Amino acid sequence: MSVILPTIWRYLQILEAPPYFLGLGLSAFSFSGLVSGPVFGHWSDKTRTTKTIILFSNVFEIVGNFMYFMGYSKWLLLSSRLVAGIGAGAGSSIFGFLTRTTLPDERARVFAAVMACRQAGLLIGPAFNIFLRLCDFKLGPFIVNKYTSPGLFMCGMWLLMQFAVMFLYWDIPPLDSFPEQDTPLREVRGEEDEPLMSLEDEDWAAAVDSNGPVNPEQTETRLSSELPPSPPDSPPPDPSDPFENFSASREFLREEVVVLLTAQFITLFNQTALETMVTPLTQKYFGLGELGNSVMYSLCGLEVIAGFFLVRWLSRVLEDRVVLAVGLLICSGACVWCLIFLANPQGGFVFELIEFIIGVFLQLLGLPFVAVSQVSLFSKVTAEKTQGFSQGVRRSVGGLATILGPLWAGGLIGNLYVMLGMMMLLLTLIMIMMALSYEKLVEPPRVENAQDSENGG
Question: Fewer Cβ atoms within 10 Å of its own Cβ: the N or the C terminal residue of the chain?
Fold first, then answer.
């Protein structure tokens, strides 16, 4: 979605849209994802598959981006963001897939790597405007210029993604399909250290030498019974319904879950509010156009990617809740800085630019800490069998934040004290909530196997 960020403001102005349409256009994408996320997550929990869901959701991305390219009116542009946002709901299925196929102690590192990939897209996206802004031609009845070309470009990228998923991706079995092995991947890696022939195999070989030839059928039966089964192309269907004893209130109204969902909402609300504010702010105070904003977004993406790799390293030695606390402290410091220096910039061009850079740097520095830790913790305090749906709910809460954030900022660009004051108030709230619930922000003890054995007995 970041390809459109440097140009959507001017695109809407050309279509004679009022200023609040900037907030509507950015929020529409999140609104559709808010609705479709739990639906796709529930689908993946039921079927234990992800590939079909991704292929289906990508169709909405293709259609939505082509509608953005057409750009006949402000209403078509708004509709295009609504349609494309439906496809974003597949993210809940993807995070559910990652939870089911990773071990708890490695999950934060895996999530950090995946989120770094997302940030790489946010980095590369605006940078494409460096050459997309040079487009100026007609494609049949459609005009291709620096405002419409991002939609056509992303339509082509999603088409390539369809073929990549179709031919290069497949679902792998979740960890709970290996009931006798808690860490199957590690045991497979450890097999390389075992001797090629065990004592039992040597005794069997000696028996062959002493008793003469063995029946080939017996040999085949022995080998087939001893060889490990090959992994299936797709996960085996789960005979039990993951939602059989599921209760949404029992799952999501626990103290630790409420804290993590609140952290998700507040951090995304603040992030999207600042993203909405940045483009008009740079145009007003620094005179940046499409090229300048593209370079700025690219530099911001580089910082965030570096931050995710830093968090990936820190997650090896620090608990998720410690990483979350550090991230919230950094975000609070960034908000205080923006209140003091950016709400009413003074001191001339150079000083205003330095104040702006420091504020944006601090805000982006805290983002990876909060994002990775709360997603990792959320996957550990909610049930694994319904991770797709749970991640859909989490992303819907985030989607609500990314709807309200741009709407809040879009209406208060001229009154930054009120806008930033609300952001500081929300950060203070989540800091208090986390301090009161700090002891509960840990992975609960695993009792699933014991319960299964009791039910089976």
Answer: C
